[in-house]
Amino acid sequence: MNKKEVLEIRKQYTHEKCSITRICGCYVDGEKNIKTQLKEAFLSLPEEETFKYFNLFKQTLSGTLGKNLLNLEFPLDAENPGGPQEFLLKLRDSKLQDDALLEEFYQKIIENYYFPENYYIILIHVAYDIPGKSLDGSEMFDASEDVYEYLLCSLCPVKLSKPGLFYNAETNNIENRIRDWVVEPPVKGFLFPAFNDRNTDIHSMLYFSKMAEELQPEFIESMFGCFLPLTADSQKETFNYLISDTLGDDCDYEVVKNIHEHLTELVEETKDSPDPLVLTKPDVKRLFELSGVPEEKLETFDQTFEAAAGEKASLLATNIAGGKKFNIETPDVVIKVNPERTDLIETRIIDGKECLVITVNDHIEVNGVNVRTIAPSHEEEPDTDDGAGSTASYEETAADAASNGPSSYTEEEAIPASAPAAAPEDDGYSFS
After folding, report:
1. End-to-end CA distance of the chain, in Å?
2. Packing angle of the helix pair 232-247, 253-269 (nearest 10 deg)
3. pTM over 0.85
4. N or C: more exposed end of the chain, with fewer CB within 10 A?
């Protein structure tokens, strides 16, 4: 499924467009015991509850394709009679009316899903009347020919609300708040069958994980018989390994920068495409060639790729690209560069040392303070302070007087010419 197809399904979770026929739920405690179950026609629920369920369903189809939302294909073994795919088809076709199938489904979840706390299994059956589309892409609801019938499952943690105080309007007091068990947003979920090319694809499904690095591959294999692709972080690590192993000792700054720039350009060119950009083994090899990796270094690339990722593996471009980051790190220094201005950094040998040279076009800040890269030089200027000059004259006069003896030196002579004359002594009388 691509972004547009996922969005088309998410848009149905409103009262105006709702095509949910039935909802079933199972509350499981941390000891894997079923505490209670729910079986209802969805629109028979109170309206306030349906809005909250709509939000949970939308969250189950949220996130990034290739990270939080994974397209899974059923291998041939899983499609054999009695396999996981057949069971899910039976459950869908029952429209959640078969209690035995529901009980079996709950037990499969409880046995294979690892979650040591309380959680709520929500399962809905939906019959979406697929509207036709005109040439300009607008929907034509009167031209529908197919119905997309599917299941959506959400696995939601149930946790105690935080302790606290609240205002009780009945008693007009501030009191201790009663802690309730609250259903939180889903952390896992799936949609079956997939909605590929705007129609039913029983050979595929969509898997959701709130945390991209906590996919629980054992749960996926046991529950659905599908094999999990590399996680987003694993794809990034694999790509970095391919660069390092291919270049070896020739893994220099310029080549790695070129790979980053070309990859970023590819992502930017396809950002508006509903389908995520996927790089296969030949695509990655071509990327290396364009970035200046020597031909002799690519002679064993195919074997390196297959050993690191698998023969038919593919890497999602958004998972392996640096995105809006271009970081340069040493054990003691970290430099973060605008990916669009990597041209400001170059490598040089200065005084026999390998250096990174950063061109400064504007200003530099150190901990939020604007600074200069080179301090301006200041020439010493002569001291022209009048007070200091007066003091020097006074000292020189006093020294001269002392050399001539006490009789030739008077206090009056020692006073500088610039000093004010002494006021006459006040004898206590005044005249007008």
Report:
1. 111
2. 140
3. no
4. C
User: What is the C-alpha separation between 96 and 121, in angstroms, rounded?
Assistant: 14
Number of other residues whose CB lies within 10 A of the CB of residue 150: 22
CA 74 to chain centre: 29
Distances in whole angstroms, Cα of residue 158 to Cα of each of 29, 178, 363 = 9, 16, 52
Q: Which H/E stretch holds residue 238?
A: helix 232-247
Q: What angle do CA 23, 29, 35 make, to 5 degrees?
A: 55
The DSSP-derived string for 42-84 is GGGS-HHHHHHHHHHHHHHT-S-BTTTEEEEE--GGGGSTTSH
Please, which residues have CB within 8 angstroms of residue 248's CB and are 6 or more apart in sequence?
297
The token pair at 336 is 């973060």
Say which residues have a Cβ less than 8 Å from residue 357's Cβ, sequence separation at least 6: 345, 346, 347, 348, 350
Sole residue written with tokens 């996926």: 220
Which token pair is 274?
Answer: 């509903």
Q: Could you list the mean pLDDT of each consecutive 10-residue stretch along the chain, which spans 432 residues?
A: 94 94 96 95 94 97 92 91 94 96 96 95 95 68 79 96 90 91 96 94 96 91 88 88 87 86 86 85 91 88 87 84 79 83 84 85 79 63 48 42 43 43 44 36
d(CA 71, CA 65) in angstroms, rounded, equals 8
The conformation of residue 406, written as its DSSP 8-state character, comes to G
Residue 263's Cβ-count burial label (10 Å; 0-12, 13-18, 19+) is buried
Instruction: Say how far apart CA 121 and CA 29 lie, in whole Å.
Output: 11
CA 128, CA 15: separation in Å to the nearest integer?
14
Supply 225's token pair: 């018989």
